[in-house]
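User: Before I run my own analysis I want an independent prediction to cross-check against. Here's the chain; please return only the structure tokens and, at the end, one sentence I can use as a sanity check.
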Amino acid sequence: MLNKLENSESLMMIFAPERVPEFPLLLADLKLDFAAIAPSLPFILTGLWVTLQFTLISLFFGFIWGTILALFKISSFKPLYWFGMAYTSIFRGVPLLVTLSVIYFATPQLTGFNIQPLQAGVLTFSLNAGAYVSEVIRAGILAVDRGQTEAAMSLGVTYKPMMLDIILPQAVKNILPALVNETIALLKDSSLVSTIGAQDLLRRAQIVGAQKYVYFEPLLIVGLVYYAMVMVLTLAAHALERRLHRSS
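Assistant: Structure tokens:
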């Protein structure tokens, strides 16, 4: 009888559900120490300007280069068409970190020019963004009713003003959500410059973590800052999209 009771108790211990610790206890077990990094918050947040600098400059040049590539891809001149397609295939197929490393580390070896992290980052992100933006813009241009082009040509409008004044403004309305997604992706990808020594948000958080011997807290703060920036971009894009739809 005693053996049966012991066996039943053993079975109950095996199959009984484990007690889940309460959430406050879990937080206490994490041993978070935000007070240790509080004096370093200004240093971390200073990297916000560096992150925005990489993102905004790269977005500007990437949009211009992407527009040019998109026009290449819809061109009837075959060398331009094939150049645009090959360029996009290469930059979409090679990891961004590999491209950044090649430009930053190989440029001094091949040319003797000591490229700076800002220059390497902007060049890499602009070239890479141009490949993705070109596909977005090309799709937007092709989505515009062909009758618009035919009507402009019948009125004697030349190619350049037709694109700038008629086709591209309509295409931008169609591709605005996709462009916002590319901007958000570029903002998040800018953290890769920490691998080449640029003191952006991520790099500064890593420096603080190494000094204070705490890594979770500064990285958590950086993650929240990136999330806040993405949410601001998303809400601003929604507001702009509604305004464009009302104006049309």
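Sanity check: The chain has one domain: 44-186+197-247.
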